[in-house]
Amino acid sequence: MLETLASDHGGHRSSSSSSGQTILAAFIPTFSSALLSLGLFLILRNRFLKHYAPRTFLGTVPEKDRTPATSPTGQNWFNDFWSLHNPFVLQHSALDAYLYLRFLKFIVFICGIGCLITFPVLLPANLFGGGKAEQLDALSFSNVDDNSVLWAHTAVAWVLFLAVTLIIARERLVLIGTRQAYLLGAPNNEKLSAKTVLFLNVPRDALLPGNLKSYFGEHAKRSWPVKDAGDLEQLVEQRKSAAMDLESAEFDLIVRGVKSKSSGGNSSAAENGNGGAVPKAQRPSTRQPLLVGKKHDAIEFSRSTVADLAEKITSHRASP
């Protein structure tokens, strides 16, 4: 009984590999959707140049700042894109944007180098590694039964690791040189950001104006020490909230005044001595504290609150 169950366990499963069908089942819909998206882009790109290539023809962009285009209809856009030089991209965009594009190019280059190093060695090693796998499984690491073949994987891993390390080191040197050349170039060397350095954990004596050159050198011109703001930020937020309440109350007063004027309420307003179109009893009001506090005129209360907070903020900013 036990032998029968053991022999029948998993008997409904096929012993052959299904990796090929699985790859095709995932590749065909993905490749079809990619072709559809690419086709739509190629159709829409040349018809809506205002959205996809505005810097190639718009009159608001100076001629010297326009992106080069060999065709006014955008037919040769890929060739134009491919022929753009790095200095042009760097001069017509920010440094961060240029470095991001270079990062994407670097990632593609790393993938290409990895394929050139690993595929010619590891695919034959896995295919003839002594296993009995079928279809795409024959190209995987699981098809290796001969332990001596594993040395190929070890050697390729070390070569790939060293290659990637050297490429990253070279890219870092290029990054340092590019950033230095960009910041020291004529259009950027006069900017304040190119001459400003952020220092952390500076000694207290270095914050004094008289000690600027002794701590940071003769070329240091000015320092901006960051002060402890204390509750200044909270006061600014309170003033902002009070200003918004004042604006809301004044808008509400205007709406009530328009309604009162349209209904002939000017005489009652004059009798109440308000001088406006809204009787004093109908002006916007608020309670402080909310719900249970004393009732105040919302506009007058907000104005006094804004004035008091502005005075406190000014005194905090003036303090050393």
Offer a quick outline of the entry.
This protein is mostly helical and 320 residues long. It is 57% helix and 2% strand. The chain has 11 helices and 2 strands, in the order ααααααααααββα.
Give the strand line-up of the largest sheet. Answer: 1-2
Distance between the termini: 92 Å
Unreliable spans are 1-14, 267-275
- Portion of residues in helices? 55-70%
Query: H/E series, N to C?
Result: HHHHHHHHHHEEH
The largest β sheet comes out as: 2 strands, antiparallel
Find the count of extended strands (DSSP E, 2+ residues).
Answer: 2
Q: What percentage of amino acids are in beta strands?
A: under 5%
Number of helices: 11
Return the average pLDDT rounded to an integer: 80
Structural class label: mainly alpha
Looking at the structure, what is the overall shape? Answer: extended
Integer-rounded radius of gyration? 36 Å
Folded structure, characterized:
With 320 residues, the chain is an all-alpha fold. The chain is 57% helix and 2% strand. It has a two-stranded antiparallel sheet. The radius of gyration is 36 Å and the shape is extended. The N and C termini lie far apart (92 Å).
